[in-house]
Design a protein that fits this description.
Strand content: 5-15%
Order of helices and strands: EHEHEHHHEEEEHEHEHEH
Distance between the termini: 20 Å
Number of domains: 1
CATH class: Alpha Beta
Structural class: alpha/beta
CATH architecture: 3-Layer(aba) Sandwich
CATH topology: Rossmann fold
Helix content: 25-40%
Number of strands: 10
Shape: globular
Largest sheet: 8 strands, parallel
Oligomer: single chain
Number of helices: 9
Length: about 260
């Protein structure tokens, strides 16, 4: 039996930094580990917050980044500009911000956007951007018509999903891929980077659903929590990326 080597992973996360430095450290750690594993990143296309940190780290590691952006967000720039939160207003971006300008000229559209409401020109389903072009990490930008298309486009291009802390959009994307897995649309691993126990409430919701017979007990294994050290004080220095990619490498498709 031939094993197909993974080529790309999706990362769902916030376009803001959050309050705690551990969130930022985890984002950079995950991006660095993705590049070290020679995987491409498929993500929401934002250039700020945790999104920006993950993509910067992947590019710095010499691998490709594919951003999938709904047309409305692309026009408004709402995931590519600083937000008025604690770190966006008080902290500077890491030095990679300057390096991003060298990459931005390579940030090209895979889809023709056309007039508002027009259907995108779909690339080949098995398209994978080369990790490096002319010695420089490559970025691709895909414009789609809706959030629903964004989620579908990201999911079909990857071999696994990672969730860092984030808000409503991040949680929505994670719950969607869990649901799609339950409906047998995909059989790909889902990992939640549980920095500072951020996703503990979601784990409890899943367990409550099982206890009350709303979720089959076997389906608890759809989501793999990367918990890190027991002491939260160690979370900022912990190598979340190495732990997440190790779990990814060890994952085997369950026999549901």
């Amino acid at each position: 039996m031939t094993t197909v080597k993974p080529k790309a992973v999706a990362v769902y996360c916030a376009a803001t930094f959050g309050k705690q430095p551990a969130y930022r450290s985890a984002a950079t750690s995950l991006g660095t580990a993705i590049a070290k594993a020679k995987l491409s990143l498929v993500y929401g296309g934002g250039t700020y917050g945790l999104m920006g940190l993950v993509s910067d780290a992947v590019l710095e590691g010499g691998c490709s980044v594919i951003g999938v952006i709904p047309r409305s967000i692309s026009i408004s720039g709402s995931e590519g500009t600083p937000k008025a939160d604690s770190y966006a207003t008080t902290s500077k971006r890491p030095p990679l911000k300057e390096k991003r300008s060298a990459f931005s000229s390579l940030f090209s559209n895979v889809f023709r956007t056309g007039p508002p409401g027009a259907k995108p020109r779909i690339a080949e389903p098995d398209f994978k951007a080369p990790a490096v072009q002319d010695g420089v990490p490559r970025m691709e930008r895909i414009i789609v018509n809706s959030m629903t298309e964004r989620k579908s486009e990201m999911a079909k291009r990857v071999d696994g999903f990672f969730g860092l802390p984030g808000g409503f959009g991040t949680i929505d994307e994670i719950v969607d891929v869990i649901t799609w897995t339950q409906r047998n649309l995909y059989s790909k691993p889902i990992f939640l980077i549980n920095v500072l126990s951020y996703y503990e409430p979601l784990r409890q919701i899943i367990r409550n659903g099982i206890e009350e017979n709303f979720i089959p007990e076997i389906n608890e294994d759809y989501v793999i929590f990367i918990d890190g050290p027991e002491a939260h004080s160690e979370h900022q220095a912990f190598d979340w990326g190495a732990a997440a990619l190790s779990a990814f490498d060890a994952w085997e498709e369950p026999l549901f």
